[in-house]
Amino acid sequence: MSKKLTTEEVAQLESYAKSIRSSIVSMVTEAQSGHPGGSLSATDILTTLYFAEMNVDAKNPQESDRDRFVLSKGHAAPVLYATLAEKGFFPKEELLTLRKIDSRLQGHPSMKNLPGIDMSTGSLGQGLSVASGMALAARLDGSDRRIYTILGDGELEEGMVWEGAMFAAHYKLDNLTAFVDFNGLQIDGPVSEVLSPLPIPEKWQAFNWNVLVIDGHDINAIYDAIQTAKTVKGKPTMIVAKTVKGKGVCEMENIADWHGKAPTHAQCELFLAQLSDLENQ
User: CA 205 to CA 239: how far, in whole Å?
Assistant: First the structure.
């Protein structure tokens, strides 16, 4: 039987997630640019990966057998930066340099200068293919490292996603676990209306992936799905995580306009107070 999280471990992960959400709101506000909605929806997934599952070490970020993470929806860079800072890869104070000239925190992740970034991303659709290549390389190396990636639901409209899906299934890359951040919204509105990728689970099943459907804000459900994926042999796993765009900030939740809009400084104060109240509950 796979390990279960204790009540104390879940509480600690939820605390990390709240801190990461506060960092996202603060850094996007300071930059007056960025993508808060999809960063907030993916927070619980990244928190669980980095603080409960992945073999990564902030003191040795280039260790060869570390697990790898690819943020395929690269515009959600704030959640990755905030998670890495929370994990100790670089000082949290640096988060407020997001998108500024000469900052290491570009609008999309760059692996050139910032520790903890395994792949430069931002051109939607490419991340799954990169992650699949990493998974095949790990097998050829005889390494036990695992590869994780997260895609946006709107990103599934990109054709290269499905090339990557075929590749991973064809080569039986069971060391690859992918997530779809299924919040139902993209920059132009509901994914079902822009260019519908629905039904999502059935499509991945048709591409011969192992598919799990979970609540993407339930830490236990996320963790259990990751453990289940590790037991599956001969297939990659897609975890379809049902999430809420802008999760944690009531005024942002389920509103497509917050896909790529920064709060005002006054809004930021209100949003941070709201997140602080959640943390104290």
Answer: 11
Q: How large is the angle between the packed helices 265-280 and 7-31, nearest 10 degrees?
A: 170
The number of residues in the chain equals: 281
Nearest Cα to Cα of residue 237 among 202, 211, 205: 211
71, 216, 262 from 35: Cα distances, Å: 14, 19, 7
Angle at the Cα of 246 (from 87 to 121), degrees rounded to 5?
55
Work out the angle at residue 43's Cα, subtended by the Cα atoms of residues 258 and 96, and round it to the nearest 5 degrees. 70
Spell out the per-residue pLDDT of the chain, length 281, in tens.
Answer: 578 999 999 999 999 999 999 999 999 999 999 999 999 999 999 999 999 999 999 999 999 999 999 999 999 999 999 999 999 999 999 999 999 999 999 999 999 989 999 999 999 999 999 999 999 999 999 999 999 999 999 999 999 999 999 999 999 999 999 999 999 999 999 999 999 999 999 999 999 999 999 999 999 999 999 999 999 999 999 999 999 999 999 999 999 999 999 999 999 999 999 998 765 55
Query: How many angstroms separate the first and last alpha carbons of the chain?
Result: 32
Q: What is the pTM of this model?
A: 0.97
In 3-state terms, what secondary structure has residue 111?
A: coil
Say how far apart CA 126 and CA 252 lie, in whole Å. 28
Task: Give how far Cα 165 sits from Cα of 101, 127, 137, Å.
Answer: 37, 11, 16
CATH of region 7-280, choose from 3.40.50.970, 3.40.50.1820, 3.30.465.10, 3.40.50.10750:
3.40.50.970
CA distances from 276 to 11, 22, 93, 173 (A): 15, 8, 19, 41
- Distance (Å, whole) CA 94 – CA 85: 8
